[in-house]
């Protein structure tokens, strides 16, 4: 799933093209992709977006007249394409926007279960829908992170991914951040020292900035990640083979030398936790 670095790279890339021309046509939209009916999508025609914004992993496109906000969440398999006038468009997009002049913004989702979503809101509705999100992970300082970490008792990997507490991080970048911070994914938030939280804040900002810079240059997953999906490869810090462990409903990658004092982590699958 694209996370903060990927979505911020998209936001920067889309900001100028989506606001350059008025919208000629909004749609078509797959019935599973368009999540709202009021206001109707055709209300966008003739209006112009003022810019592209991002909240956590979501993109927002407010209209210049201040009346509507289009929101896009790619989830696991949604993909965006920006097409120039005349460029061939996918036959069955999950959602498409055509601008005056002929350029298009197209959302595709090559998955049986459609998860990506498009919402059209008034600014007030959009604010309500997004008010549960915590502060953006990029730029979060140690003082604010200390409040968040001290306010919850949880395994660190789970806390980093909780969008209500910190917006923008998912399973990939939480692996990268914890590796850079030399902290165990299973560390209990209440037991972290002040020094460890500072290290975490530095690693969070450092890794997200590193990821953003790479994604802006079009880097692949294999180039962007140093530990995520690298099972058995040598840790780039110490050379220890990278390990994986099942936690809740997904897989964590970690280095036992850098992060867990040499200890192997035990699986904690959701099914075992529920039993
Ligand atoms: Zn290591």
Describe this structure in words.
- The protein is an alpha+beta fold and 275 residues long.
- The chain has helices at 4-20, 123-130, 142-150, 156-161, 171-181, 194-216, 221-224, 256-259, 270-274; strands spanning 23-29, 53-55, 58-62, 69-73, 78-83, 95-99, 104-109, 117-121, 243-248, 250-254, 268-269.
- A hairpin with a 4-residue loop joins strand 6 and strand 7 (104-109).
- The longest helix has 23 residues, at 194-216.
- The mean pLDDT is 95.
- It binds zinc ion (ZN).
- Zinc ion is lined by residues 235, 237-238, 240, 255, 257-258.
Question: Which terms would index this structure?
Answer:
alpha+beta, 275 residues, four-stranded antiparallel beta sheet, binds zinc ion
**Whole-Å distance between the termini?**
28 Å
Count of DSSP E strands?
Answer: 11
Coarse structural class: alpha+beta
Radius of gyration: 20 Å
Count the DSSP helices: 9
Please estimate the helix content: 25-40%
Q: Please outline the major beta sheet.
A: 4 strands, antiparallel
What is the general shape? elongated
Order of helices and strands: HEEEEEEEEHHHHHHEEHEH
Parts with pLDDT < 50 across at least 5 consecutive residues: none
Overall pLDDT score: 95
Ligand catalogue: zinc ion
Structure summary:
The protein has 275 residues and is α+β, with helices and mostly antiparallel strands. Helix content is 32%, strand content 20%.
């Amino acid at each position: 799933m694209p996370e903060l670095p990927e979505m911020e790279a998209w936001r920067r890339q889309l900001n100028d093209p989506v606001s350059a021309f008025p919208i000629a046509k909004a749609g078509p939209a797959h019935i599973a992709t368009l999540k709202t009916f009021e206001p109707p999508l055709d209300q966008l025609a003739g209006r112009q977006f003022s810019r592209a914004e991002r909240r956590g992993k979501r993109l927002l496109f407010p209209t210049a007249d201040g009346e509507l906000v289009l929101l896009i969440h790619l989830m696991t398999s949604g993909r965006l394409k920006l097409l120039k006038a005349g460029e061939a468009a996918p036959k069955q997009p999950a959602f498409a926007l055509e601008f005056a002049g002929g350029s298009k913004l197209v959302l595709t989702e090559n998955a049986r279960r459609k998860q990506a979503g498009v919402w059209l809101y008034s600014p007030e509705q959009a604010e309500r829908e997004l008010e549960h999100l915590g502060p953006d992970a990029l730029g979060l300082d140690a003082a604010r992170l200390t409040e968040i970490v001290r306010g919850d008792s949880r395994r660190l990997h789970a806390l980093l991914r909780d969008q209500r507490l910190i917006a923008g991080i998912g399973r990939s970048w939480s692996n990268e951040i914890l590796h850079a911070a030399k902290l165990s994914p299973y560390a209990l938030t209440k037991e972290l020292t002040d020094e460890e939280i500072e290290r975490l804040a530095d690693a969070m900002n450092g890794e997200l900035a590193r990821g953003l810079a790479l994604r802006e240059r079009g880097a692949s997953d294999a180039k962007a990640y140093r530990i995520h999906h690298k099972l058995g490869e040598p840790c780039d810090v110490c050379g220890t083979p990278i390990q994986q462990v099942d936690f809740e409903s997904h897989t964590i990658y970690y280095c036992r030398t850098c992060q867990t004092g040499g200890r192997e982590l035990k699986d904690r699958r959701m099914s075992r936790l529920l039993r």
